Amino acid sequence: MANVTSKLGLVYELLTPKIKAAITAIPEHERCHIQEIRLRLGRFLTATLFGKEYFVTHDGRLRSVPENAVCVDAYDIDTAYKRSLSNSLHSYHREIANGFITTKGGNRVGFCGTAVLDSKDNYSIDTLKHISSVNIRVAREVLGSGDVLYSKAFAEGAASLLIGGPPACGKTTVLRDLCRLIGGRYRVSLVDERNEISASSDGVAQNSVGELTDVFNSYTKSEGITIAVKVMSPEIIVLDEIGVKGDLSALSYAVNSGVKLVATCHAGSFDELKKRPAVSKLLKEKVFDYAALLGTGSMCGQLTSFYKL
Question: What helix, strand, coil percent values describe the chain, rounded to 5?
């Protein structure tokens, strides 16, 4: 509870007084379970609890309909967006182009609007303008959330594990705790591309990620994996959200170097996992020893299926 309260306290720093007042008015027994806070320009403030999105009224009531809910204006959006970037937009070009940034405590702020394309770089996204939505995902360090998976996958020694589940099912939370457990026993390299797992500040991990864990903070997956294998001799590499074809060569390099992998991937079922091109190739190459699926809603963060591959 104290951990969640401190994470929410850091979220409050991003909000205007109007939005903060509505969120803090939510009864504590509900507020401590907030997973996401969403601001949509010209529409209504919402909060997600247990995978369900609710409208938030000025006096902190959670409703399934927008009646009496707080209306979000341009100032609310602009404030949250700029504060998440420390009011220094020019310093976070990469994060803006990617559409998210990890803020203090590991909270993740996602945003969208009008993309500005770079004609000199294959019309990739260069930056954003006219921000229309901000989604603040509250980080949670839930000690013990990885216990079941740890006992199943690592009972006989180091192993490679793929964790699947839909968005907001607790994958990162479980992965963080698994890293803590694995890193207490094995030499681990954590490739923390978005700084969501370690929540490092000035080189110090604010979350518990294991005494034998080395953190590669804000490295791309391919760079982090390759460098980790070369300079840290890890027994296990931990990383979040694989699935991009560009990651394949680095992942294969690690596996061919004798390193085990623990990773997450967006998928609602094992069939969905197998249909993702990059993941499918890794499964066919027998990269992973086990695969696990997490539930949503009341089963958020809990193991629903476990496969020996």
Answer: 35, 30, 35
